[in-house]
Amino acid sequence: MKLLLTGSSGQVGTELKQQLAGQAGLLMPSRAELDLADEAAVQAYLKQHQPQVILNAAAYTAVDLAETEQAAALALNAQLPALLARYCAKSGAYLLHYSTDYVYPGTGSEPWQEDSPTGPLNYYGQTKLQGDLAVLAQCPAALIFRTSWVYSVHGKNFRNTILRLAKQQAELRIVADQIGAPTAASLIAAISLQALQRFQQGQPMTGGVYHLAPRGYGSWYDFAQAIVKQAMKQGEALVLLPEAIQPIPSSDYPTPAQRPLNSRLCVDKLERALGIRLPEWQELLAFKTQ
Ligand SMILES: NC(=O)C1=CN([C@@H]2O[C@H](COP(=O)(O)OP(=O)(O)OC[C@H]3O[C@@H](n4cnc5c(N)ncnc54)[C@H](OP(=O)(O)O)[C@@H]3O)[C@@H](O)[C@H]2O)C=CC1
Ligand SMILES: Cc1cn([C@H]2C[C@H](O)[C@@H](COP(=O)(O)OP(=O)(O)O[C@H]3O[C@@H](C)C(=O)[C@@H](O)[C@H]3O)O2)c(=O)[nH]c1=O
Ligand SMILES: [Mg+2]
To answer: How far is CA 203 from CA 170, 200, 207, in A?
Structure first.
């Protein structure tokens, strides 16, 4: 079975690549081999290789930069998934796509459901929503896993930023009024492989949106505390002590893109579909950094 993995150098892509190791027929073009922002090039690639499964882990994820680099964000987050969905609908190929908590407006404090009204607050979120809507419209059998606050030992993410800063400075100010669930890229890859297995066994999950995140929630401040405590337990030499992390409101940390305050995702639908219970985010973090 020919399987195309896009974004194989990213956080989720790297974990998928590792967990898919040994799978025959795996295509993982690098950016130099295939510019995913180039629609004609992607079309030609699909025509040439005819994949039967597409795992679309590529995206434009620089949230603040997306406010100004709009064309690049739109190409990767909206136009690419639309094109992949059209190809999959036509050819019968299986599509697994990823999306974000940033499609929701962040109001209230209850977890979002998959059918909750969307309302992105920033351009990244707007383009991701456009991508989701295109996938749902073009290819109803496709799966969209909406996740949140992705981290990994590889790549640019909040966990690695905090660990870097904790080795350099004795104080840190972190927003405490944005809540959500930090999600290890390895969990996303493991669940994606379960979904793929279902498809390969002829029992695919019903198409549509599923939230994919650990159980529980915290603020970015809670996440930073947990990252630093975990690193200390593991004997890392840090300049920063957990007590020296200051909780601040979002208004004290101005950024070009606005972030949602409430990013909680209800994961019941995914748990029911796969017959699993997702771990708590703290358990997952402890496991990841051991
Ligand atoms: N990061 C997060 O916190 C969250 C992410 N998500 C979603 O999860 C999915 C995976 O995200 P994540 O793994 O963090 O993403 P990353 O930013 O880590 O990886 C993005 C990947 O896309 C590739 N890419 C981007 N532009 C191009 C291009 N023009 N041509 C070829 N390749 C390109 C990158 O390649 P290169 O290495 O060459 O740049 C990289 O492999 C995305 O759909 C994202 O929206 C959802 C919620 C949270
Ligand atoms: C580094 C730093 C960040 N922050 C805040 C800014 C922000 O509100 C929060 C997290 O910072 P980040 O830059 O990692 O946030 P961001 O890049 O917006 O993270 C998002 O990325 C996209 C791709 C998603 O899809 C989302 O789920 C989410 O993970 O922490 C501080 O308060 N103090 C700091 O020193
Ligand atoms: Mg970021």
So the answer is: 53, 7, 12
Distance CA 42, CA 35 (A): 7
The number of the ligand nearest the C-alpha atom of 98 reads 1
Residue 160 lies in a domain: no
CB-based pocket (< 6 A), ligand 1? 7, 9-13, 31, 35-37, 57-61, 76, 98, 100, 128, 147-150, 155
- The answer to whether 191 and 262 are in contact (CB under 8 A) is no
**Domain annotation covers residue 246:** no
DSSP SS3 for 265: strand
Cβ < 6 Å from ligand 2: which residues?
A: 61, 63, 100-102, 148-150, 158, 161, 172-175, 178, 220, 253, 259
Number of domains composing the chain: 1
d(CA 7, CA 12): 8
What residue's CA is closest to ligand 2, atom 26? Answer: 149
Domain with 44, as residue range(s), is 3-152+184-215+264-278
Residue 240 resides in a domain: no
165 CA from centroid of ligand 1 (Å):
23
**CATH at residue 198:** 3.40.50.720
Residue 125 lies in a domain: yes
Residues comprising the chain, all counted? 290
- For residues 186 and 157, what is the distance between their CA atoms, to the nearest angstrom? 14
Residue by residue, pLDDT tens for the chain (290 residues) are: 899 999 999 999 999 999 999 889 999 999 999 999 999 999 999 999 999 999 999 999 999 999 999 999 999 999 999 999 999 999 999 999 999 999 999 999 999 999 999 999 999 999 999 999 999 999 999 999 999 999 999 889 999 999 999 999 999 999 999 999 999 999 999 999 999 999 999 999 999 999 999 999 999 999 999 999 999 998 989 999 999 999 999 999 999 999 999 999 999 999 999 999 999 999 998 875 53
Reported ipTM: the value is: 0.98
What pTM, to 2 d.p., does this model score? 0.97
